[in-house]
Amino acid sequence: MSRAELRVLVFHRAVGFVHQSIPVAVAALVELGERHGFGVDTTDEPDRFTAGLGDYDALVFVHTSGNVLPELPQRRALEAYMAAGGGFLGIHAASSM
Known about the structure:
By secondary structure, the chain is an alpha/beta fold. It has helices at residues 22-36, 72-83; strands at 7-11, 39-43, 58-62, 87-91. Strands 2-1-3-4 form a four-stranded parallel beta sheet, with helices on one face. The mean pLDDT is 93.
């Protein structure tokens, strides 16, 4: 697989504490994708998980806080993605949900 085929989804929802550095972190990841030739999509919408994650090689949770996936189908979609071998990177407090 070439880098041009790689895609990551950057998820940055905060329903608890909102880190002021979220926009900077998201911009940095977008810039990394541009610089190194891989695709980056960004969202703070939990419904994105039930819309399908199959196009992504990795998910990046950036400063997420609180119950960022409030619906059971959203959490199950994340679990299924990871069980199928999908990549996950959590940046600062990303698993505190």
